[in-house]
Specification:
By secondary structure, the protein is an alpha/beta fold. It has 6 helices and 14 strands. It has a 6-stranded mixed beta sheet. Strands 7-8-9-10-13-14 form a 6-stranded mixed beta sheet. The protein has a two-stranded antiparallel sheet with strand order 11-12.
């Protein structure tokens, strides 16, 4: 049996919303072994992500939310690998603004469990940055993939359309800060952190 590992691919491109555009670097996370892998947030560059997959079976392309910088390479990656695209239903309207002619293949809901290489990934609905934002918790790996819900230094942005600050704070407190303190937080942008570090930061707010 091959050991499960987490790989990080950083891709670069444009985030566009509310009439503005910003150049951003995104974390694309791969969880799996030598045989199969899940891709979390197919951002910007399907070729670079496909190279990182390196011929392994992709069991799913999981979208933590449907802002364009997290999903713009998802259809191309799915076409290359045959993997289903999974997204929370509450972000379907945002998906459609980016990909009018392609729907996700399945929808994520709170508590759903995905498996890859014998490892469980648990879906946590963590709205606030977007209505359908999710985090993926891997208890066996001691990590949670938080998309744009929780970063090193605090919550994700809530100053744009369809986002809400009280909601994201409630999501973080109710769904993320209760995880074991040593849980590594792997966000959609920037450096990783831990639940303990971010819990201490949020207590000051």
């Amino acid at each position: 049996m091959h050991s499960v590992r987490i790989e990080n691919v950083v891709t670069s491109g444009t985030f566009s919303l509310d009439g503005g555009s910003w150049e951003v670097d995104n974390n694309v996370w791969l969880v799996g072994d030598d045989e199969e892998v899940i891709v979390i947030d197919a951002a910007h560059d399907a070729v670079k992500i496909t190279e990182a997959v390196a011929g392994r079976r992709v069991t799913a392309v999981v979208c933590t939310h449907a802002h364009n910088d997290h999903i713009n390479a998802a259809p191309a990656l799915a076409d290359r690998t045959g993997a289903p695209i999974l997204l929370h239903l509450d972000d379907h309207f945002l998906w459609q603004t980016v990909h009018k002619d392609r729907k996700p293949d399945g929808h994520l809901s709170h508590g759903r469990q995905l498996a890859v290489a014998g490892t469980e990934l648990r879906v946590l609905h963590t709205p606030g940055h977007t209505p359908g934002a999710i985090s993926l918790y891997a208890p066996g790996l001691g990590t949670v993939f938080t998309g744009d819900t929780l970063f090193k230094g605090g919550p994700g942005a809530t100053g744009r359309s369809f986002s809400d600050f009280p909601t994201i704070i409630r999501s973080i407190r109710d769904r993320l800060l209760g995880l074991p303190p040593d849980t590594v937080v792997r966000p959609g942008h920037g450096e990783s952190t831990t639940v303990r570090t971010e819990s201490a930061d949020l207590q000051k707010r």
